[in-house]
Structures are given as structure tokens and as C-alpha cells.
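Notes to self, Acetate--CoA ligase:
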Amino acid sequence: MSNYHIKHLEEYYQVYRKSIREPENFWEEVAEEHFMWRKKWDKVLSWDFSKPEVKWFEGAQLNITENCIDRHLTTRGDKTAILFEPNSADEPAQHITYKDLYKRVNKFANVLKAQGITKGDRVCIYLPMIPELAVSVLACARIGAIHSVVFAGFSSSALATRINDSDCKMVITSDGSYRGAKSIDLKGIVDDALEDCPGVESVLVAKRIHSEVVMKEGRDLWLQPLLDEASEDCRAEVMNAEDPLFILYTSGSTGKPKGMVHTTAGYMVYTAYTFKNVFQYREEDIYWCTADVGWITGHSYIVYGPLANGATSVMFEGVPSFPDFGRFWEIVEKHKVTQFYTAPTAIRALAKEGVGYLEKYDLSSVKVLGTVGEPINEEAWHWYDDNVGKKKAPIVDTWWQTETGGIMITPIPFVTPTKPTYATLPFIGIQPALMDENGQEIKGNQVDGRLCIKFPWPSMARTIWGDHQRYKDTYFSAYENKYFTGDGALRDEVGYYRITGRVDDVIIVSGHNLGTAPIEDAINEHPAVSESAIVGFPHDIKGNALYGYVTLKEFGETRDHNNLRKEINQVITEQIGPIAKLDKIQFTAGLPKTRSGKIMRRILRKIASKDTSNLGDTSTLLNPEVVQDIIDNAL
Ligand code: 6R9
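result:
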């Protein structure tokens, strides 16, 4: 069907127009021709953003793993589905074929069943980037259990919060993980977390680093012996289109993370369709996304999207700097990677090391480059284009979110002319709108505003686990009848979009979304701290880094400030994880506040960015005198 692969710009506009004029017919055609359904839908779409309620392919029945695995067995059984590249460059890569994956997922699914997991149960997965991570995700989907993957860099307390929020019955983890030259005691982190998680009945432990771990009698089980015993056949649970597939947590502007709920049919259709078009994926390609499956990018574009297309998806356990900064390029050369999808922060980190590492490797296999996670600056864009793509591989700057499930604004390679720092055009079926502060849509080009989406798309999150009101308040209340993304954007003279960044209290550090509130909550737990405010400031590698303004209690004032800084970062590491550590901590006598008591982050942001030229009128503040003091002592 011509709709599936878009080949030139005229066709993009044609298909786009159709997808907007007749969305139901359009998505029905995509769904009809490319997937395996146990039963077709009765209704393609019903929606009401005021509730909000969105249903795609209602009445349909399917199992996403039959689409990602079973249906490829006859045509691609011996093709590599997952190409696992270990942390150590000396350990051989593993080629897991579709046949192997079928067996491994079924065995794992049978283990879950034997442990009492059934349809609708929540299972927390806290694993490093090893094959068991993808396999356990798919095993949950096979039996209709709802997976909740928690990125294995989160601390025990962040893990416990997420386990409890969605009442997970089981945790799947490993003894430990490798990260470059380091190894991390994952099982120890899980043990700490579970002190506060009474609902967890069992823990399955994969062996990765062969460390000594404590196994709690009656709760913890080694995974491998159970897999060895399990059958290779497991009937796929028949799921309804709108049955939840997974929960994935994202930071919010209040302390509690939001468990975004994604459902089955729409998510599958949209991630598969975007994968094929955004990467111009062809049968013989070797596709590599460097994200972690702990983030939405890994869910949609390492696991589900690629596998639904029968692709070969590279899964890399390690880090770009180990054993040296040439590792990514070594892997590209070794596996002849054709599509390479990474984050601006990784590009900046690698660019800083110079092109020497790149020049050692043959990157001629690369056809398409991708970026995701935060705005890409012009310098990084050109470095990527010049040195990795040699100006021959188009860069797809893909804008999307955990909440959107799939890519929303993006060039289509070889189709959409690219423009540095622009995510360019809405993907098929996506209707963006820029809104002004009075809630009016800003029409026309060369304008900027707050980015909303006017019409549902199949992979949008349906709710926040356990808190539908918060889902409504966060995304559907700022602008009537529109999904509000939390991002600002501009539209240039030809209608290309450039995402300018968050307009709320989320700061993106190295591509990770961090809410200011949970970090402030963590800092404030330090006994010497009275109050704190976190802002982002520009950072060459991370995009943004964190600057903390901290006021101390009286006894804290007498303490050594450098020790205090270490302790504060220690608390953050324990509560959230090392990704949320502060680069700079300024101790100050007070924080600038409005009369209603709101901290004026706008002023603090400017000071942190060393831009004190135009702080605006500070005389209306509750405590204007602190501003000069903060400026004088800024770091
Ligand atoms: C997929 C993912 C979502 C936020 C999003 C935006 C930022 C993502 C971007 C981008 C500019 C891009 N973002 N891609 N900003 N250009 N190409 O990253 O999901 O972790 O939920 O983050 O990331 O601010 O709102 P998530």
C-alpha cells in the first residue's frame, strides 16, 4: 500500500492532507494492511478532549507480540531481530533471531505465569540494557501483564515510588549492571527499594555480572533455572485494542512522577508506521537507536516499532566513552549500521573529543541519522551532519514525548529538506497548533507560541495511572479542546517547526526530563537546608545543567560549604539518581519571591545564565533586596 512508505515531498503533502481530512479512513487503511488482528475494530476512533477520552480501533482484538514476533517467523525466522552489543568491546555480540526471540519470550512469559502473573497485573522491570530487558517487556505483553520499566539509573527511592504508584506485584532485575569500567549493584538497589514496597510478591533476578547478592527466601528467584524449565510455547493473550500495554513514568512539575498509560492497538499502529517512514526503513537495514529501553524512545524505537516491521534492532549495553570515545563508531562499522538515532547530548559529548575517534572507522553504511530528546543546537547539528553523515545522510530531528508515544514532528529523510535546529513538519496525521497566552490559536507563518495538538493520534497516552484528573489538568486544561505539550515552538516562513524548549518547570539535562520539584524536595530533606530552588543553565555537553539556590538553617551556616554541597548532591543521588546532581550550588540568604510566595525562577534562571541585564521589575517582589545579593555571589 502506497500509504506505508512515503517517497517524495509531493506524496508527503498528499498523504498528510488525506490523514487530516479523513483521519479515520487513513488510519484504518494503515491498520488493515500491515498488522495481524484477531478481530478487526468496530469503530476507528472516538474522542472527547474535554473528558479527556480517546479510543482507537475499539472492538479490535490483537496481541502486539504476534505482530512483533510470530508473524515474521515464516518470512524472517532466521533474521536477527535483536543485535545485542555488550558493554565490553571484547565480549562477542549476540544475534537473536526472530525464532530465538519467539522462544525466549514464550519461555519468559511462561515463567511469569508460573509466578502467578496474569492479565492486567503490573510488573516492574529494572534491568540494564541486556536482552532480558527486551525479552521481559515482550513477555509481559504476551500474557497481557502491564509492564512498567524503570530506568536502571534511578535510585532505590525513585524506584520504590514507581513500584508503589502502580502497585507492581513483581520486579524483574539483575544481579548488577556494567556501565563502562564500572559495575553497579542493581540487586542491592532493588532490595533497598523493596523495604518500602509491601505489594511486591516476587523478584526475578537475571545474572549479568555474577556478583554475590543476597537472595531473600520466599521472594527472590534466579531467572535462568526457571527459564530452563519453561516451555517454548505460550499462547498469546487476546487483548482488546484499548487494554493497557504499559506504564512509563515521566517527571512532572510537582513531586510525584506521572505514570503515563499507553494502550495496545493505537500504540502499535503508530510506532510501526512512524518507524518505517521516519527512518525510511528497508528490509536489509541494521537500525540502531542508542537510547535506553527505560525511556519512551527505547520502548517505541528499540523494541516495538522496529520489531513490528521485522527489523534488526541493535541494543547496546554500554556507554559512548568506553573503552574510548570511538565506541559508537566502532559499533557502526562492525555491524554496518544503516540508521543511527541518538540524542544531542551524546553528539555534543562526542564532538568535544574531536574527529580523531571517528576517522578511524568506516561509517559509509550510514544512510539516515536521527536525534531526539531536546533541541539540537546548530553547532552539534553540523558536526553530526559533516562528520558522521558526511553530508550524505539526512538528519531527522524528531520531536515527541513520553506522552505522545511516537514521533510527532520530524523530517522524512530524502523527502523533507532539512534545516538545522528545525524538527520541520508534522508527521502524517498530526495537527499542531501554536497558541498565545490568551488561549487563541496563532495562525499563519513566522510566529511562535505554545505547542498544542488539536486532534488525537493513535499512540497518545490515555491517562495517568490512578489519576485521570491530573491527566486532564496537566494536558487538556490550559487550552480548550487541545493537548498541551508543555513546549514552546516557532513556525518559520515555510511552516517548519522549531521547538524552543519547555515552558514549564521541567529541565532537560542530557536528554533526561527532570522536574524541579522532586529535586527541590530531595534537597530540602537535608537537615541543614531550609529552602531551595533549582533552575537550568546552558551547558556545552548536557544542554542544560542544574543550578541550585539553597538557603540554610541557622546551624547550617556554620558548616563547611563544600562539604554541604557534597552532602546535598548525595541526598539527590539517593532520592532521584546521579542524573539529577547539581553542577552549581549557591548558598544564599533568601530566594526572590512574589507576594503570593512563588519563587521567581525567571530571575534565578537569568542569574544562573549570567544574564543580569534585564531582570525586569523586581520592586514588586516580597524581598527585592535578595536579588542583588544573589547576583553579587553568583557562581
Ligand atoms: C522522546 C522524548 C519530551 C520532551 C519534549 C521536549 C523535548 C524531545 C525533542 C525535544 C526539541 C526535539 N524534546 N525531542 N525538544 N527537539 N527533537 O524525549 O520524550 O523524555 O518524554 O521528553 O523532550 O521538551 O517535551 P521525553
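- The first helix runs from residue 9 to 21.
- The pocket of 6R9 is lined by residues 250, 295-297, 372-375, 397-402, 423, 485-487, 499, 502, 508, 513 (CB under 6 Å).
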